[in-house]
Model the fold of this input.
Amino acid sequence: MATKRRGAAAPAAAKRGRREAHAELCAALGDAALRERAGAAWARGERLRHDAVVLEPAPFRHCVIPGFLASSAFAEALRDELLGLDFRGRRNDLLSLRQSEELGASTEPHVAALRHALCEEFQVWLSAVTQIELEPTIDISCAKYEYTDVLLCHDDELEGRRIAFILYLVPPWEKSDGGTLDLYSTDEHFQPQQITKSLVPSWNTLVFFEVSPVSFHQVSEVLSQKCRLSVSGWFHGPSVARPARHIEAPLARSPHIPYDHEILYEWINEVYLDLDSQAQIQEEFEERSEILLKDFLKKEKYQLLCEALENKEIQWSSRGPANKRLYEAAEEDSLPDTLKKFLQLLRSEALFLLLSNFTGLKLHFLAPSDEDEDAGEGQAADSSGHSSPKPEQEETEQAANGNSHQPRQPESTPEAQDSETRSSSGTPVCAGELRRWTHGHYTLVHDSQATEFALDLLFFCGCEGQNCSTGGEQCTKQL
Done:
């Protein structure tokens, strides 16, 4: 949970010598009958359609107020004032945008006037409609989304946040410009499922929604050169209980398939089957905890793989939930024989042994253990069961890539297990899938999986000609 925030309150007075401004809200917010209708619809989870207020219950309770500021001249002056602020770029796995500093203490006259109206008049109206005892302070800042900027799926939940709001100050905007506020439905585990509603930004329109375990939303990627300018933040109130975090079922895991070393000579570039090369790879891997193996497959096999991936009979399914990932995975039963055989290679006993030699991890019974090395008996076994001297073992993660940055990615994760976490048979296991990546796909950093030691193996296809501007990079976050 977050520490106690420093919210913005209504200003006591403007600084001497600085002109004051007054933010007048739309007249409909002063209509007692409309407020009562909105409150009743909110409480019953019903729809309310009015020229001044549109309230919708699905996929979660939210409200749209067009013409929120009564004066267009004030809205234009506010926009100009905001554009003159200092913005800092923010970019991580979740978002890309430019954001102002917290505006709680801003003395800009129109910003201060808006803050005063939100903390006073609008806060009273919100409390009456939602029946939430809101505090007279808010968090508030300004954001600029420009070409390719995005904010991916999240729920806004943080201690004390009860109502989120966004005031749009945008030029004429179409859905084709991107930058929509997308709202997600959720499943029985409170996990986001599908985008069921998209709100197109509109000048001087305010949107608010209740922050809850199901309030998953995103700002879709901006696709035009327009500036998506908005003021946003949260009203705070008493915290509500959150349901227990849902733990996802892991991918199905299985021991290696009993294929001998012949499968390696059929598929893999022979330079990687040389024991001296394997020793060099292991030395680099143990130093860096990762390694890139170029031209890993034989050229003719790689070409066959790329051709097989174009097969129209392959069935792809979307993988989520959207607050953690979005990509497509192939149904293995629909794969052509070439791809099925390649997955057999990745899960073969021979490859487990080869990966042991590449990394020093005990992924095969012939690979030496830490106890062997402590006794001076470290040997690296080749795929035929012979052995050669091997450096000290280190438990870590690896990305073993055929080519870099691509849209389709067979992935396998052999587990490097110690004596306490090893399966009852003592045999390392693996899990993997064939993934397809295209525009709009992503994975996010999250902490809902149990900690374990595993080796990540990634093989990339179909990425020729891509560069850093194309996207799709494999990133590692060190915490």
